[in-house]
Write a structure and sequence with these properties.
2 domains; nine-stranded mixed sheet; Transposase Inhibitor Protein From Tn5, Chain A, domain 1; alpha+beta
Length: about 475
């Protein structure tokens, strides 16, 4: 049997006359020096601190080494930094830079109770796994899982953070609603096959206002995409109006949300709406002349042509009343492309402005959902229970909130003001940093060759600047 060992010296290909030699002797170095900026975002917003307050801790206070705030902060910050799995934390727990951002006082883990834990300031995968698997019925008498998440408080916090991000109430806001698939590859609770997506999945509901996340609800896939949307909007709109009683609210979504129950809820609660409407033979006949005009324009110019028309429409059975519908008669290279939206908003022209400038803007929300799923790992729902997977979705959601706050508070006016999470992570958070801990200070030496040094300093200064007066 060969002996496994770590070589003291690694010799790589020479560069000219010089040998290239590597050794693991650089000291305590972190690859996540930019996490310091996330710490500054936390100082301003207290996102992580308040997420921790949404948990009830039934553990014996005298035996706790990792407070709930440390556990929650570690999990969310790791997602923001690109560490998607719990397994990653068995290495991350030794990172003193992350420990300092999390708020651990013993950043080197020198004072841990058990000898085998010394040198590890943060929690490992097993401790964090128990946090996720705790049931709603857990008490102090439970054996292992004793930290209970309160979903209602987490839901409310998302809206609270949105409200606090505005120095004064806006005149109007648009709430975008959408559903997407979250593919499943195991036997998770609530696993169903969805015919449209052609796989076993969950069907989470998202609600955004611009780039800000207000709701991320994990749902089983055996339901209509719009199911439960009115209930989520009811609590969100109620919380918004309690603080901003005069704000005008519009709900926007694709045709999957054009349901009588949701339209009626909006009308009964003074909320405007703008939803896609599935086309049918009656609707297409109603814009027959416009379709013909678009066809003629296309043949004359060889370019895509559009015409619009506002009509009053009511379904034969499902709608309770007549409503305003905007029809888009469009001719593309591939053929006719009629589309329709239903709205309660006033239409001052042929509907083009409302359709092109307001309805089509909802496509930006899809980018936000992709950002959270692809780069903040909202689709890592591999736990056995729906509750545990919802908690993982919450953690991903607050990681998104943290990155969005960094974008809004620190990156405004910079080249990364509109950057997505992965670009921000690559250019601003992944920085080599050497950590030295003395009695009085924690010294962070950032890589001198870091190419975005000026940007980093500018973001730091913006985050440290005193807030503007309301």
């Amino acid at each position: 049997m060969t002996t496994e060992c770590t070589p003291e010296q690694l010799e790589f290909a020479s560069v000219g006359r010089r040998q290239v030699v590597a050794k693991f002797d650089g000291g305590t170095i972190s690859s996540d020096g930019g996490a310091l900026l996330l710490g500054e975002v936390e100082r301003q917003t207290r996102v992580l601190e308040r997420v921790a307050q949404c948990f009830v801790d039934h553990r014996d206070a005298e035996r706790i080494e990792h407070p709930v705030r440390t556990l929650v902060s570690q999990r969310i910050l790791a997602l923001a930094l690109g560490y998607e799995d719990l397994n990653d934390h068995d290495e991350l727990r030794a990172d003193p830079l992350l420990a300092s951002v999390v708020g651990a006082t013993d950043v080197l883990g020198e004072d841990r109770t058990r000898a085998r834990d010394r040198g590890y300031a943060l929690a490992g995968k097993s401790t964090l796994n128990r946090l996720e698997l705790t049931t709603a019925a857990a008490t102090a008498a439970s054996r292992y899982q004793k930290i209970v998440a309160q979903p209602e408080a987490l839901d409310r916090l998302l809206v609270t953070l949105f409200l606090e991000s505005h120095r004064r109430p806006p005149a109007s806001i648009v709430l975008d609603v959408d559903a997407t698939d979250d593919p499943l590859h195991g036997r998770q609770e609530g696993r169903f096959f969805h015919g449209y997506y052609r796989n076993y999945c969950y069907l989470p509901l998202y609600i955004f206002c611009g780039e800000q996340l207000l709701c991320a609800r994990l749902r089983t896939a055996d339901r209509d995409a719009a199911a439960g949307t009115d209930a989520e909007l009811s609590r969100i709109v109620g919380q918004i109006r309690a603080r901003w009683p005069k704000v005008a609210i519009t709900v926007r979504g694709d045709s999957g949300f054009c349901r009588e129950s949701l339209l009626s809820w909006c009308e009964a609660n003074g909320v405007d709406y703008l939803f896609g409407l599935a086309k049918n033979a009656r609707l297409k006949r109603s814009i027959g002349r416009e379709l013909a005009e678009a066809e003629a324009a296309y043949r004359a110019t060889g370019r895509a042509a559009r015409r619009f028309k506002v009509i009053r429409y009511r379904t034969r059975k499902s709608w309770s009343r007549e409503r305003t519908v905007i029809g888009k008669a469009e001719r593309l290279d591939k053929g006719a492309n009629p589309r329709f939206v239903v709205t309660s908003l006033p239409v001052t022209d042929d509907g083009r402005t409302l359709y092109e400038r307001v309805y089509c803007a909802r496509g930006e929300m899809e980018n936000r959902i992709k950002e959270q799923q692809l780069y903040l790992f909202a689709d890592r729902t591999s736990c056995a229970t729906l509750r545990a997977n919802q908690l993982r979705l919450y953690f991903s959601s607050f990681a998104y909130v943290l990155i969005e706050a960094l974008r809004r508070l620190g990156l405004a006016g910079t080249a990364l003001a509109r950057a997505q999470s992965d670009t921000i992570r690559l250019k601003l958070l992944k920085i080599g940093a050497r950590v030295r801990v003395t009695v009085r200070k924690i010294w962070i030496s950032l890589a001198e060759s870091y190419p975005h040094r000026e940007l980093f300093v500018a973001v730091f200064r913006q985050l440290r600047a005193p807030p503007l007066s309301a």
